[in-house]
Amino acid sequence: MEPFPIRVLLVEDDEDDYLLTRELLAEVGTQRFILDWVTTYAQALEWMIQNRHDVYLLDYRLGEHNGLELLQEAKRQGCEGPIILLTGQGSYAVDMAGMQAGAADYLVKGQINASLLERSIRYAIERKRAEEERQRLQKQLCHVQKMESIRRLASGIAHDFNNVLTMIMNAVGLLQIRVGNNPQILPYLNIVSSAALRGADIARQLFLFAPLDELKLSPLSLTQVIRNGCRLLAHSLPRSITLQTEIPPHDIMIQGHREYLQQVLLHLVQNAQEAMPAGGVLTVRLTTVPAEAIRPFPPDLPAAPGYAVLSLTDTGVGMDAETQQRAFEPFFSTKPRE
Prior knowledge:
Order of helices and strands: EHEHEEEHEHEHHEHEEHEEH
Helix content: 40-55%
Number of helices: 9
Oligomer: single chain
CATH architecture of the largest domain: 2-Layer Sandwich
Radius of gyration: 31 Å
Number of domains: 3
Distance between the termini: 57 Å
Mean pLDDT: 85
Low-confidence stretches: none
């Protein structure tokens, strides 16, 4: 399979150097390049901040400006691709200044051949990808650690809250026996009892954020849980929303918690319904995927030969970028606080 072409932007005010660069890139037989050429600082800056290229080659001399100034300004305005500086003479000071400003490499004109140029471009792109992957994994790790802290906190609160509610409900039960059918006291005890039951329900919801090792998981058929859940939810949706299901006929067995899975499905369907105020189509899909097909592999995912995948797709209004970033934060909501 032929590799994808690498898009290169050359910033060079000398046409002869442009033609030479084009010839050198054409000599590389293992990789195809698409070369764009601009001659001025202003043109280059405009193109670079659009991030349409995989790598940038900057001539150090650009009239009243130089490549180092362009590099710094492009980085400041959001250029994300790797940048390689080109100069007519080797200079240690320029080399060091370029590296400190974020240049991926520094090449001296007259000493460049096709192999050197290809390797410099390839290494620059690979280093950039490796850095992006490192940042992605670091961000993912921070998210996992934050979620773990929230889970521990929620679990602790739920346990303590349950203990308090148990004492309240026991005391209310004893008082209800003592007062009998006293119409002046019994209604108030019933109010306390109802409030305590609502509190217990809140505590159960907090347990959704408990670490997996604190949940009592058991073997169950995810197929049956999702199929039965969809059958019940279909009657609660308005007629303007069509519920479609893609659920295999065979059982997909997992280690899980039936009630929590049902609650997750309910909340996802409710969110989809709210995203389609004018109606639409909601699709619930259940399938499996082998472990080797998951790339990159989430660090908090337990090792297993394969995994069940539950996905819900709706034709609603969607989420903006900020909401997508926070979608999996516990207690996050776009609804106004009452």
